[in-house]
Amino acid sequence: MSADRIALHVLIDSRHSAMLEGPIDKTRLLYDADPGPVPLSLSLPTERRRWRHDAVHPWIAALFPDNERTVARWRDQFGVVNHDHMALLPHVGEDLAGAAQFVSEDRLPAILNREGDVVPLEDRQVGLLLDAIALGAPTPDFTHGRFSLAGAQAKLALRRVGEGWALPWGAEPSTHILKLAVAGLDGQALAEVLTMKTAARLGLEVAETWLGDFAGRQVIVVERYDRRLVEGRWRRVHQEDLGQAAGIDPWRKYEDRGGLGAAACADLLRRHTGESDVERFVDALIFNHLVQGTDAHARNYSVLLEAGLRPRLAPLYDLNSGLPYGPGWAQHAAMRIGGESRFSRIGAGHWRVLAADCGLDKDQVVTRVATLAAQVPDALSDACREVAIPPDWVVWTTAFINAATDWCHSVAQALAAPSH
After folding, report:
1. Rounded to a whole number, what is the distance in angstroms from the first to the last CA of the chain?
2. Helix, strand, coil abundance in the chain, percent, nearest 5
3. Residues in the chain with pLDDT < 70?
4. 211 phi, psi to nearest 5 deg
5. Partners of 130 in the beta sheet?
6. Domains and CATH numbers, the chain
7. Are 100 and 148 in contact (CB under 8 A)?
8. Helices in 293-333 by DSSP H: which ranges?
């Protein structure tokens, strides 16, 4: 096969669904006559068998890390000259977000026969893998696990085996994601874990997350909600982010860069998943406002696509807070609330506009903001007790709780202020 062409079999939950083939810059998706019950994307429904490159390419590009240094390292590692992300897919397309696998002809029999295994790792070896990712160096034994994970933070996909870890390969999926903390932000890993657990304590559906430590390196460990143990075997569950579901380019993830805003996300969910998911989505917007989460763009929301079930909003992930870093550190939300992105300017009137934009009751949304604002500080305090904060971080977490208490109080005051 030419270096400028690809021909990949598309499997969804281990079932052959389509072919992805053609020149790198003109690749087309061709669904099978019987592609199965789940499409590759809501933006690429199976009712139409052929999809052109301009419709398929944004979905594929969204499977890759945002960090160009990581992508460049993969090109060097696999000898890929073409700079299009599509050219890397044959090398890293066997374990991705969701249930889709992109498999070359020579690998297809093994994958369809579910050939694969896991390579047990000691914590020291996991630490070496994390070090390699952090430094941008080639990952040791990377050929065992052909994975790619999107996002800005460097990630490692592993299988949890009992209390230990293993590197899966072949048809075997990973079950957990290990995320490195954002460089330059002290305590970022701890902040993310505490924010996720705070959301869970408020009743929001979130991915199970905890703080891991490998040779002194703190990482965020996330249990994959797109993996499920069925009759003793791990299977993949299909999912896609809202940007993919809308068919937009992945670099347009922020609203101010042409990405989806709250109303567009709500409309997409209402059409494909239902009213209750619109309410869950707005709850997430409220929560991100109350913790000053600046990165809650459309690609940090996903939908699950499962056979026999209506699509639904996936558990929340990548929740974080700017509150530990001082007043004014986090200034803008990723999605505007009633036309306003500045946290400090958002009041009841903005939430009423947002409610109308999302087709929800205005008074109920404002009441929900007030209710959650009253609950966040205690939920965060409980999360800190659950995590068992290291002694060196007690002062930091106390400051986090105090900042959350002050901010939520100011939000409640803004709700009560008369509208102009």
Report:
1. 65
2. 40, 25, 35
3. 1-3, 136-153, 419-420
4. -95, 125
5. none
6. 5-112 (no CATH), 116-223 (3.30.200), 239-416 (1.10.1070.20)
7. no
8. none
pLDDT at res. 78: 84
Q: What are phi and psi of 16, to 5 degrees?
A: -65, 130
Token pair listed for 208: 């199970």
| pLDDT at residue 275, as a whole number | 96
Q: What's residue 143's pLDDT?
A: 43
- Backbone Cα Rg of the chain: 22
Whole-number Å distance between alpha carbons of 194 and 272: 31
Compute the distance between CA of residue 289 and CA of residue 369 in angstroms, rounded to an integer.
9
For the question of whether the overall pTM of this predicted structure is more than 0.70, the answer is yes
Q: Give the CA distances from residue 348 to residues 114, 148, 345, in Å, rounded to whole numbers and listed in that order.
A: 54, 41, 10
User: Distance (Å, rounded) from C-alpha 89 to C-alpha 68?
Assistant: 15
Instruction: Kindly list the distances between the CA atom of residue 310 and the CA atoms of 113, 181, 278, in Å, as whole numbers in the listed order.
Output: 29, 35, 14
Instruction: Compute the distance between CA of residue 99 and CA of residue 111 in angstroms, rounded to an integer.
Output: 13
In terms of DSSP H, where are the helices of 227-261?
242-246
Residue 314 contacts residue 303 (beta carbons within 8 Å): yes
